[in-house]
Amino acid sequence: MLISVLETKNHITQEVFLPEIKEMGVRLFVKRLDKIHPLASGNKFYKLKYNLEAAKQSGNSTVLTFGGAFSNHILATAASAEAAGLKSIGIIRGECPAEPNPTLKQARANGMTLSFMDRTTYRKKHEKEIIDRLQEEFGNFYLIPEGGTNALAIKGTAEILTDEDQTMDFICCSIGTGGTIAGLIKSAMPHQKVLGFSALKGEFIHQEIANLLQAHEIPSQNQYALFSTYHFGGYAKHKPELIAFIKKFKQATGIPLDPVYTGKLFYGVMDNIKSSFFPPGSHILLIHSGGLQGIQGFNQRFGETLETE
């Protein structure tokens, strides 16, 4: 089991004290999943936990997965597979860069074999023809989808909430492939509402999450709501006000955020606190899903100075 093979740090739940939070009469807490492990951190830890166990039980010595050049999932898979005694292959979207970024360098350092796939082919990556071609090239492997979301990932993310979280009224998380919010909805108490903040541009996310919940037979009723207006231009895109917010939040609370997922989540939650979305007396829990490893590459690309700790 992944938990037994990775050396982990205990995550903590940290209350955030800011004037605007006190003014609105609510309490805000952050579940610091970024503290779990330096490389396989946040929600990726939970998504990979049972997938790597299944890979070992199936007799496969290799796992293969997909992701972009700055992917948290790629690096987490590399680190987790190495700790579990498995080989790993990362199929990277796009052309091979002349100089690998920090994410790819670290993935290679953790033993991952990197193979680059043109974007046209990458869009068809889950088709049988493409998988057969990859098996011809690399031999047998255990396939983990892009972002890690599948039934075993949801089984893992359903373990994010613990007994200590039962006092919370709202559970807030970022949305990428949907595996984390699905697990949270599955495990949330009847009195709790799960709020998802999409990091992707487009209203399609509403139907995509509904389909995911239906496919995995997760009853939802009115237990969740989605926000699709805090994407700041789309996936992995940003605007100056997002970067300014991340820096200000870090200075005020000591909590680092990334510009792809958690920065947008925290911005959205704070915006809704200020607009009185949350009733007075509410206890709000934000899931810090990690992703801090990508900040070094982001700073190099854009000349920024975001902090990772």
UniProtKB/TrEMBL annotation:
- Superkingdom is Bacteria
Cite the active-site annotation.
71
One GO molecular-function annotation for this sequence? D-cysteine desulfhydrase activity
Sorted alphabetically, the keyword list is: Pyridoxal phosphate
* Signal peptide positions on this chain: none
All copies of domain Tryptophan synthase beta chain-like PALP, residue ranges: 16-290
Q: Which cofactor does it need?
A: pyridoxal 5'-phosphate
Q: Which Gene3D superfamilies match?
A: 3.40.50.1100
One Pfam family linked to the record? PALP
Query: Where, per the database record, does this protein carry N6-(pyridoxal phosphate)lysine?
Result: 44
UniProt family annotation: Belongs to the ACC deaminase/D-cysteine desulfhydrase family.
Q: Which PANTHER family match?
A: 1-AMINOCYCLOPROPANE-1-CARBOXYLATE DEAMINASE-RELATED
The protein here is known as 1-aminocyclopropane-1-carboxylate deaminase
